[in-house]
Amino acid sequence: MKKGFCTPLVAAACAIAACAAPALADTVRTRSIGEIERQVLGPEHAAEHAGIRMLARMQARAWKRMTPAQRRRAQWLERRRRRAVARASAVLDPAVYGKWTQGPFQLPVAAIHAALLPTGKVLFFAFPFYPSTNTPGITPVAGDAWVWDPAIDPNPSPTADPASDPAFKHVEPPYDPETGGPASLFCAGLSILPNGDVFVTGGTLHFADAQRSQALGLKRAYTFNPWTETWIQQPDMHHGRWYPSHVELPDGRVAVLAGFNETTGANNSELELFTPTDDPSGVGTWAHPASADRSTDLYPHMTLMGNGKVLLAGPGKNDTALLDPSTWKWSGVPAQDGRRTYGTELLEPNGTAPSMKVTEIGGFGTVGSGNTFPALATSTVLDLSLAPPQWTAGPQLNVARANMQTLWLPDGSELTVGGGNGMQNGSTYVLQGAKPEHQIELFDPQTGLWRLGPGQQIDRAYHSTAVLLPDGRVFSAGDDNPYVFDQSRPYEGSAHNSGEIYSPPYLFRGARPQIDSAPSEVTYNTPFQVALSNVDPAEAHAVMIPPAAVTHATNPSPRIVPLAASPTAGGLNLVAPINENLAPRGWYMLFVVNSDGVPSVAKWIHIYGQGTPWTPPTTTTTTTTTSSATTVTTTTTSDTTVSTTETTTSAPTPAVTTPIVTTPPPPGGGAPQPKITRSVEWMTVASRQPFRRGQVVALLGLATNQTTVSASLVLGPAGAASAPVLGRAVLRGQHAGTLKLVVKARSKRSVKKLLAARQVWLRVRVTAPGAPAYSAEKAIARRR
Fold it and tell me: Rounded mean pLDDT of 711-729?
């Protein structure tokens, strides 16, 4: 497809797959939907939507045509295939290829979005899961979120019910008055803030239906405090965003771009800047530098580069540019070799110097026919240190993939997990015939080649996720394919609301180094020490990896940060990253790795402060052109060139004479919990309300769990003599997030007094363990 392969295409599967096609056809004729889409979206894009609906109908009809015996045989064949995969994986040497050591185990919701928290836990969220009911006609416009604690149960049983497993905790998103339920964070953008919060923007306001040919985005923003495990509502964005992306800037602010808006479903081209607070329970602010606005495809790849600028690199071929945060202007970068929808991206390390090189991997392009576009196995590398910057061909995967996840491992290798065969007949859930995408791929930086490894048991294509855990294992989950066998069976089924655990090769190569002590925070370009055991410090090195926050093949911080190191008695002298361009502010996993590539269990370390400016070495390239008459010599100097030789750019390792830090790590190995500074973030009360229902309503942004909210409705302000109390409400055990508080008149007599009053007062008091009490009083006038 040419230009008609527009922004909404890559989201079509999300909008349509979220709505069960047969149920939708009960209320709206398929032909009428097609006519609407052809008029609004054009014939090519409408054909893509039609293909997804057609695939759903074909799968449903094929299953219904089967006899009970044929259905049993189909299920038996699928079980046999999984056993064959397990047997084939068992013969591989785990010290070379790794091993799937756990799973699939059930999850309470599909992990369409997943984020590793600085506490070592994993937050995952999507739309609610209904295991006991048939497929709903339309996926509810609501969100659901859970936290898994590997410290409690590192290997969940495949037969366990996660709802009763103490390792899983329900952390429902805040109430959203606009949708009337938990905030619909499905198809949102997410990242980890410098203070450790998970930052979530946008989501689903409405799915595509008969009235709307395109999904609409929420303009909400939330943070999730990993220590209190509570949600905080942040100020709204200017407009909605469905499929946006984030990138952290050198100063700790977060730029948010792209996504469908809340009114027409058009692309939101505004770039907005969120300034977070140092307090994980705080409320930040938004700004809009209009000169940075840009229209891009959905879920664009945005990465902070070593020169402090933000690289935009896909998925569209022309989604390539550099944003300078000092001027808020975009500058040109050569276009990619083609579109890479739902491909992954990694920032390549440059020793201990800031990086200027990225690799775009897999995805699917525009080569195909109709609404079928096979996945790509190729990769392409952009080197900004060259003058001019250039794209070159990179290492090729063994299996073409899209919708996978690619992660850095602490030994410096790369891991690709899951994926599907691009788009097949409009669906992005389809794998190749023998499902080779089940096999992981490992990239060896020494050979420059990818090698296939063991296969997992469950499809992990569209809406799949994977994150590196602090113990060095990888959690793989997601893929909510709604067209698995019979649509009359329970929605989705346990196979796709599940997780699996992959143990990389280094976990089968002997004893692991152990970090006995390390500081919990350091400032840029300063020395610090770690105490070690089970390793010779002379044969060890250290790297930092930020916690992943992934969805739809994106990860806003796809980096690994090697540290300058020198051995000392019982440990290593290390130097923190030189500045924010190399390692943006925030929490990192610190791994110590021995000479066999075996890493320690990570310690959490917080990087903050002001970095040291870094000037890349100047490289001069001389080109000589000779003719029969003259010789012309042209010299080009690049001010942004970064040498790839570590010895020319690494900061010297200062001598460290301070004693080794012996402060014990916090319980559970996670980052220490910040002090709670407030119990309520905000309170909103309409100054004029109708009293005819005998009640008043307020909204509170709670900042803590186990909160008690007491409210009373009175006829006079505080201090008024014997002001009659018309009603009371006490709510105990409330969780953080938006609370809808309703205070009703307690009797018929009180209702009469309320209806006769011109003004009443709402008194609210909020208390929570370990947090200051909150008290407020609001006057409310009667609205007729």
Answer: 84
